[in-house]
Specification:
heterodimer, A: alpha+beta, Uridine Diphospho-n-acetylenolpyruvylglucosamine Reductase, domain 2, Uridine Diphospho-n-acetylenolpyruvylglucosamine Reductase, domain 3, Enolase-like, domain 1, 3 domains, 5-stranded antiparallel β-sheet, 4-stranded antiparallel β-sheet, 12 helices, 14 strands, globular, B: 793 residues, Aldehyde Oxidoreductase, domain 3, Aldehyde Oxidoreductase, domain 4, 5-stranded mixed β-sheet, 19 helices, 27% helix
Amino acid sequence: MKASAGGYARAESVGHALDLLAGSDGQGRVLAGGQSLIAAMNMRLSFGDLLVDISKLSELSGVVVEGDTLRIGALTRHAQVGADPLAKTHAPLLTDAVSHIAHAAIRNRGTIGGALAHADPAAEFPACALALGSTIHAEGPGGARDIPAEDFFEDVFTTALNEDEILTAISLPVAEEDEVQILEEVARRSGDYALVGLCLVKRTAGHRVSLFSVGPKPILAVGAMAALDAGDLDTALDALSAEIDPPSDTQASAAYRRHLAGVLLSRAVARLKGDTA
Amino acid sequence: MTIPFNNPDRPNSYIGKTVPRPNASKLVQGRGRYVDDIVLPRMLHVAFSRAPVAHAKIGKIDVDEAKAVKGVLRVFTGKDLAEVCTPWVAVLAHLKGLKSPPEHPLAVDRACWVGEPVVAVVATTRAAAEEAASLVMVDYEDLPVVTDTMTALDKDTPVIHPELGDNLAFRRLHEEGDVDAVFETAHKVVSASFRTARHTGVTLEPRSILVDWNPAEGQMTAYHATQAPHMMQTVFAKHLDIPESRVRVICGDVGGSYGIKVHVYPDEVATAAIAKVMGRPIKFIADRLESYTTDIHARDHEIEAKIAVDADGKILAMDVDDWTGIGPYSVYPRTSAIEGNQVVNLCGGPYDFANYRAQTTVVFQNKTPTCQYRAVGHPIAVAITEGLVDMAAAAIGMDPVEIRRRNMYADDAYPVTSPAKMKFEGLSHHASMDKLMEMMDYDALRAGQAEARKKGKYRGIGIASFIELTNPSPFMYGIGGARISAQDGCTVRMDPDGSVVALSGVTEQGQGTEAMLSQVVAEGVGVKPTNVRVITGDTQVTPYGGGTWASRGAGIGGEAALQAAKALRNSILEVAAAMLQADAGKLDIRDGQVVDMDSGEERMPLEELGRIVYFRGDTLPKDLPRELVQTRHFITMEYPFAFTNGVQASYLEVDTDTGVVTLLKHWCIEDCGRVINPQLVDEQIRGGIVQGLGGALYEEIHYDEDGQLLNGSMADYLVPMAAEMPDMQVGHVETPTKESELGAKGAGEAGTAGAPAAVMNAINDALRPLGAQVTEMPFTPERILRALGKIND
């Protein structure tokens, strides 16, 4: 199908982009890597959008360490995240995640900010952001604001971001020396959206477990986390099963996804203990 | 002169060697010419408003808003096109009882599946046509929807086409021997239900057509991505009331067909009809969603089957009850009864047994029509047969290879006729199995499997023997009244520079037909393959032929090319003999040079002969024939089909916690007779295997109970991709057919025929210690875990 865009403008700066959005009468859509938006437009699932292209705003790209925080610009491409030495040292979960995201051509264009703002419940980065206790940075007409990842994801493709705001960066605490970050997922084919995915982070403060593709948004499995803190995997598995409400679709039933979530948690915990089986 | 194929050092020995494909660099450099690359003056685009519901009466159609879109020139309804295009009925006389209602290019009174074209919008761009198509308002009055195959004939199921009386399109029962008596007394009877999912072919290039009607010449030219240009010529001529001689179908580069592009599609006929009405070139290129809802589907079968064996593992009887739902229409002109018919013909194929019963029941339903797709019926028949054979082996505690060895036709048994009444000229099941055992090192693999199991890994080995139907005679379609040619021709000519041009009725779909033809002609004439230009896919230029389907290109088209090339060689030598005052029988042509047969001494380059013939013909004797253009045709006469055979094996691991299958290795030994180009044949086999692995593990079209297609995109309909594919080792046994000098049989569908069964048997081999078994394809992780009883709903 042929896309039907309502208009297109290339932003010269974040401020310019915000002006364009403000003037779009609610039709504005931020275009970054375009790996979800353009596909949706080409299927006419989205039409009449006024595209605000922020892809040339180099100030939104790149990875830096500021004190004990790792900050990744919204326009940093998946492939850049995957190859970035700072990310590998301080947030290996993200490095791991990149190898599961789609295919090379998509990773070369898709951006981390786009993935977070799109909030696909089956995507890796939103769940990673939850597991790592990240902060999402946004700018709007009223200035900048920080949103904890736990408050950011609200529903399918829905976030706490306002229509007139742009996601500018994500920051997260750098990994502690003994911190372990593990990502497990099952997909039908390499590069497909996961049937179920799970992130497990173990740091001094305790375990953090997030899941994707188990409901309308990525979730933090707080019950399972508490049980793992108490050293009780069986209780964690029961808790996990109770706190997810996975969907059924043509790829897998809810019951299968629920089973898989348990398998992935068991496997992640086994890896935590150094057991590679 | 006959070609000494057994001597690989013979002159011009291109047949049997991997010769580079003449069109490879063109395609790799993006210089191919597909239909969508062609732009004609005054060309317009057509897009279709398609039925959003599976079964509905068509009421008022409001096209005012659509017509108002900038760039829109005309809008056509089904009634409009019915005035210029006659409907078609897809039945064949030899498929007794097959029925189907008339089908129009655009639905007239009723829409019968989601995606059926209802209104056509013509505009200056595809975007405008699409925009307008989305604004066409059609009043659909819902009618009862039939989606389930097995209940389609139940009394309380609505009848889709009341004028046909019921939802039964076709039924065929074949019975040989006393099946019931054998099952009553047999040592062991094993039964199972099988299911193969609804697939579609997912060609890289979607269906594409550009039709130009020139009223001044009264000629229609269709640039068409098709497998059968001459068949389409007849179809357009017949239904648009044009003399056949005034329809020209040109088929340039085609981006994969797999059987998808050998059928008549209503939107393509509508495109031709509109071109004729408007007198302007009209282009239609399907997008991917249209491909999923309107390309033919296939393989949607449900089967109950059983096998009886004696204590020694000898097969005593097979009984197969096959059901398939084909959508609301049998597809023109090959019909949608062939796949079920093939299941009846092919079950039990490799095995020498006496008592056989098979019935296929083909029903209508409100889904996309199904028809012939690569390896038509074979993957189903092979899964049934090989699944049962493995289950029987397990039931009597016999190795799966051993039970096959005890039942396969002996390699010296031919010719034989199978219990399904298929005639086999010469097959090599035992030699193929021996070669497979050696190639895969079966015993070592079994030992490795046992070792892995000790470590908690569930690995499986699956074997699948198969037969493949190739080189069809008129018994496939022509006997039933279809104007589908089983013969094919080739014209070969030498030009003044000594180069050779070959025009063939078989077509190139990206599989290498032109490479095959170039090397056959090169050897037949005595020139290098690079000096042969091959032209295919133009009904006004090439000899009349069937095109590409049922693995016939090499076996039929190749033989015609060989005979034409040899005839040209003789013509050239006749002229050369006169020029050189030599005996033609003592001359030969090698690498473009006329040489002395015995010494190999060069006597004259072909370009010198060309110069004389074409520019100084006055210097040759007056009565000397100088016919440097020769045409030959070929048709098989002795056997309805040239069957091939082979055996595949799969080695895989099942993750019994997640249900995920990892393919570790795949092997295929097959016998397509003379191998013309080993690399092309091997890659055909590999590509076919991949398509079969897709059916085994990934591909499945889903509908809901209202007949809505649920997965019409590449993200949701999973095709096999490189990362999941195992290493594939391919080997050959060569039993040439004696029907032709070339001896080639088809190789295009063997991979697809056997791969799903091999994978099924390997998964079940892995699961057997856990007491689980799967028979419903694709073998998704969930289906495997359910078989293991690990999912609590």
